[in-house]
């Protein structure tokens, strides 16, 4: 038996990592405006620029989701960390829907 860390050790945490990445995708992709500005000044095609932006924000969300899931799993346990990720996703969705409904009423 080896004590080395492997990626299969993370497999029980994958649902929580995905939930946290989903919950943090939009908040983390907003500050990437500087990257968008740099890409606009570069001589890349627009489609490639969009691909780099989406890929960068997705990788950032996955990395932060992994860190959040590992920290919460260490502090609370893997079940609680995944459950909090689900609550964060559903809370963000409900706030987004409520804000959209509020905008429609003001018009």
Can you characterise this structure?
- By secondary structure, this protein is mostly helical.
- It has helices spanning 14-29, 33-41, 46-76, 78-106.
- Helix 1 (14-29) crosses helix 3 and helix 1 packs parallel to helix 4 (78-106).
- The relative contact order is 0.16.
- The mean pLDDT is 80.
What attributes characterize this protein structure?
single chain; 107 residues; mainly alpha
Share of helical residues: over 70%
Mean pLDDT: 80
Number of strands: 0
* Category from helices, strands and their pairing: mainly alpha
Could you give the distance between the termini? 65 Å
Measured on Cα atoms, how large is the radius of gyration? 18 Å
User: Major sheet, described briefly?
Assistant: none
| Sequence of secondary-structure elements | HHHH
Low-confidence stretches: none
- Tell the overall outline: flat
How much beta, percentage-wise? under 5%
Number of helical elements: 4
Tell me briefly what this model is.
This protein has 107 residues and is mostly helical. 79% of the residues lie in helices and 0% in strands.
Helix-strand layout with pairing:
Blueprint: H1 14-29, H2 33-41, H3 46-76, H4 78-106
Helix pairs in contact: 1-3, 1-4, 3-4
